[in-house]
Amino acid sequence: MKKVALLRGVTPVGKNKIPKMSYLGEILTEVGLTSVQTYIQSGNVVCETDILDEELSHLIHQTIKENIGADLAVIIKNQSELTQAVAENPFGEGYDPSRVHLVFTNDEIAGEKLNKLLHQDFGDEELRLGSQCLYMYLPRDARKKKLNTNYLEKQLDITATMRKLSVISRLSEMAK
How many CB atoms lie within 10 A of CB 73? Predict the structure, then answer.
């Protein structure tokens, strides 16, 4: 089965840098994953495996830590989850699709904390809940935004990673 690994916290420089995505593909192939493909430098991997999601997340995490030194959380999704997330995008006409971001987690997103967050006023930024992820509309420059992954992680006590809608659309296609 094809699975998509979304790496949390990849940086262009520093301790969480992945030197080359091609090298990441090589080391993941060496530990038994097949048909490994990477997409853009932010840490997106599509692979073929029958390993359970939690085990796959741990395997990728450990492989990266041991071979590269980066300590990255790994969120695992399958093609149908990504396709559903793209299809359920609540930001339609009138919204710039390049400013739509999807937030994924391996953790359960539910409860009073989530309800409180969904009713909070973020100005021109918007937060919505879908069946597969959280959706954020961020019309401003990244340095000026209120909503971000770190904020959501703290408020919801989860580990999460964010991708643009266009990236998730592409990963969904790659995972077919």
Answer: 16
Q: Categorize the per-residue pLDDT at 143 as very low, low, confident or very high, splitting at 50, 70 and 90.
A: low
Q: Coil, helix or strand for 129?
A: strand
Residue environment code for 84-110, b if the CB has 16+ CB neighbours within 10 A, otherwise e: bbbeebebeeeeeeebbbbbbbbeebe
Helix H segments across the chain? 21-30, 53-67, 79-87, 112-118, 149-156, 165-174
Tokens of 167: 């990236």
Q: What's the mean per-residue pLDDT of the chain? A: 94
Query: What gap in Å lies between CA 7 and CA 59, rounded to an integer?
Result: 12
Tens-digit pLDDT profile for residues 152-174: 999 999 999 999 999 999 999 99
- For the cut 70, the answer to whether the pLDDT of residue 142 exceeds it is no
- The CATH architecture assigned to 2-79 reads 2-Layer Sandwich (3.30)
Amino acid at 127: L
DSSP-derived 3-state class of residue 143: helix
Give the C-alpha separation, 150 to 148, whole Å: 6
- What is the C-alpha separation between 97 and 111, in angstroms, rounded? 29
